[in-house]
Amino acid sequence: LFSWGENREEAISNMVVALKELSIRGDFRTTVEYLIKLLETESFQLNRIDTGWLDRLIAEKVQAERPDTMLGVVCGALHVADVSLRNSISNFLHSLERGQVLPAHTLLNTVDVELIYEGIKYVLKVTRQSPNSYVVIMNGSCVEVDVHRLSDGGLLLSYDGSSYTTYMKEEVDRYRITIGNKTCVF
Predict the structure, then answer these.
(1) Helices (DSSP H) in the chain: which residue ranges?
(2) What is the structure's pLDDT at 26?
(3) Same domain for 41 and 131?
(4) Number of compact structural domains in the chain
(5) pLDDT at residue 27 is higher than 60
(6) Alpha-carbon span 105 to 112, nearest angstrom
(7) Are 140 and 95 a contacting pair, CB within 8 Å?
(8) Tens-place pLDDT, residues 171-182
(9) Domain range enclosing 16
(10) Residues 98 and 13 in one domain
(11) Out of 11, 72, 114, 116, which could bridge 184 as a Cys pair, Cβ 3.0 to 4.6 Å?
């Protein structure tokens, strides 16, 4: 990566902005979030770095910034529920194509979702009200979220007055949810 500016501070700032606008998705994990964190450290800004600097950060377990916990939980629940609800419709349609009519109760509109994040278990109920409107319920509280499926597999969510582009990567034993340039793992 290269960045230019009138001085070091401007060049670093330009690189951070460019990295925040960068989105790399694939079967491999990227270090863009971590790189942004490194570039924003005071030591890097003041050019007080050496070969041991990165070793010290690794030893201190410096981590990339994570999304707000509740935002992560809501996004995770919506991704998991969306997959389940789409599978339900797909299975129903495939049975119709084979001349079978499944009972109406097999068409789900509500999904129970359990997520564990940083050692805390979240139990949610997600209900689809319309193709683009969902209600997420947790601990007696509910929130409405507008959801639009993106052509690249992501979801565009309108939640709590803001819009978020979010992706889910389902791994063998966990879900990796990316919200903007921040990642959380359930």
Answers:
(1) 8-21, 32-39, 42-45, 51-59, 69-97
(2) 54
(3) no
(4) 2
(5) no
(6) 15
(7) no
(8) 888 898 988 878
(9) 8-60
(10) no
(11) 72
